[in-house]
Amino acid sequence: MNKDKRSSVKALLEILFVSTRLGLTSFGGPTAHLGYFHEEYVRRRKWMDEKSYADLVALSQFLPGPASSQVGIGIGVMRGGVLGGIVSFIGFTLPSVLLLILFALFLTEFDVANAGWIHGLKIVAVAVVLHAIIGMAKSLTPDLNRKALALFALIITLLWPAAFTQVGVIIIAGVIGFLIYKNHNKDEALSTSFPISKRFSATCLILFFVLLVLLPVIRETTGSYWIAMFDSFYRSGALVFGGGHVVLPLLEQEFVPTGWLSEAEFLAGYGATQAVPGPLFTFAAYIGAVMNGWLGGLIATIAIFLPAFLLILGTLPFWNQLRNNPNIKGAVMGVNAAVVGILISALYHPIWTSSILKPIDFALGAILFSMLTYWKLPPWVVVLTGAFGGIVIHLL
After folding, report:
1. How far apart are alpha carbons 211 and 207 in whole angstroms?
2. What per-residue confidence (pLDDT) applies to 75?
3. Which of 13, 34, 121, 297 sits CB 3.0–4.6 Å from 289 for a disulfide?
4. Where in the cell (predicted)?
5. pLDDT value, residue 248
6. What's the confidence (pLDDT) of residue 389?
7. What is the pLDDT of residue 136?
8. What is the pLDDT of residue 193?
């Protein structure tokens, strides 16, 4: 093995080691993950400077999909090329995927969907999503125009709940944001170089759109269960703006009405996802495992994260032109405001309507929310408290 190959293998192993350690310890959702990444990759290891990291975070926030995972992939790419991005993704994602597949297999094997602690996990989901909404609303809807866009998204998605309704709302909000904020003040122009050719990136973008269009067609023509499953997860991963919490309503619309899993199983898994480290999109591994065991969990994971891979690899070389375009910024501002409304709609249904059934449920939810918001306790503490509280409520 020559020196270049040895150094390349060493770099990949280092990426795998560091990303796996982050995958085992990064609790708290996408915002917290970005903080962990900054501490590890920028401050401690100095793999990239502050400006490059901020640039990568901005790109990931602009794209649909799991922002923290896309940042992790991007860091891996900048450190070790495309293979580095794949290795970084595996290290950060695999721990929570394995934990959630095991949880799903346990849930289906022992039929504990109606257990008290499962109800407690559903109430945890109420507290977590409400906490996320409040934080996002402060930054994403600071003025009346964006508050109105959020209200529009809330009303439409609540009255006409469907996956394509949400996509339509996001498109409309982007157009309105473009019209309202097209003269938004430009920030200082930024530039960062990425080690990917534009030809390779263009191929990734083409593949992203080809799969988005062709998968539903193949699904209808073949009637294949596995193609249908892959298509549902791929589309959910491709159309989510705003991070992991926003994928909840899309996945709920894809899998609960079709009878692929029950609402109780869905919400129990969402609560369990808060207890494990790593990206929230690994919730797909739980759903896939409930439907089709460990193989279903792995396929669901690949399908929901594939759009994130194709998009981050496809846009890295073009990001400098995009992010310095004020028209694009205005559209993103409108989309982000709509995301807040979609989240509030999801908070009401299915989360609230399936979890807060009695006054004592509301009381437990208030305690869990306070633990998260005011006492700043770690999410795993909140999850364990919710599970214990659910058992107590069940016994009363």
Report:
1. 6
2. 93
3. 297
4. Cell membrane
5. 72
6. 95
7. 76
8. 60
| Three state DSSP letters for the chain | CCHHHHHHHHHHHHHHHHHHHHHHHCCCHHHHHHHHHHHHHHHHCCCCCHHHHHHHHHHHHHCCCCHHHHHHHHHHHHHHHHHHHHHHHHHHHHHHHHHHHHHHHHHHHHCCCCCHHHHHHHHHHHHHHHHHHHHHHHHHCCCHHHHHHHHHHHHHHHHCCCHHHHHHHHHHHHHHHHHHHCCCCCCCCCCCCCCCCHHHHHHHHHHHHHHHHHHHHHHHHHCCHHHHHHHHHHHHHHCCCCCHHHHHHHHHHHHCCCCCCCHHHHHHHHHHHCCCCCCHHHHHHHHHHHHHHHHHHHHHHHHHHHHHHHHHHHHHHHHHHHHCCHHHHHHHHHHHHHHHHHHHHHHHHHHHHHHCCCHHHHHHHHHHHHHHHCCCCCHHHHHHHHHHHHHHHHHC
User: For residue 30, what are its two tokens?
Assistant: 């996408």
Rounded to whole angstroms, how far apart are CA atoms 370 and 98?
Answer: 30
C-alpha distances (whole Å) from 179 to each of 6, 61, 141, 174, 239 are 53, 21, 16, 9, 22
Predicted local confidence at residue 113, as pLDDT: 56
Report yes or no: 166 and 247 within 8 Å, Cβ to Cβ. Answer: no
The HSE-up count of residue 392 (CA atoms within 13 Å, CB side) is 10
Which burial class, exposed, middle or buried, applies to 396 when counting CB atoms under 10 A from its CB (0-12, 13-18, 19+)? Answer: exposed
For 276, the token pair is: 């494990």
CA distance 286 to 303: 13
Provide the pLDDT for residue 156: 95
- Give Rg (Cα) of the chain: 21
| C-alpha distances out from residue 15 to 29, 50, 79, 81, 177, Å | 21, 19, 8, 11, 39
pLDDT value for 56: 80
For the CA atoms of 385, 386, 387, 388, the dihedral, rounded to the nearest 10 degrees, stands at 50
Residues with pLDDT less than 50, the chain: none
Q: CA 396 to CA 390: how far, in whole Å?
A: 10
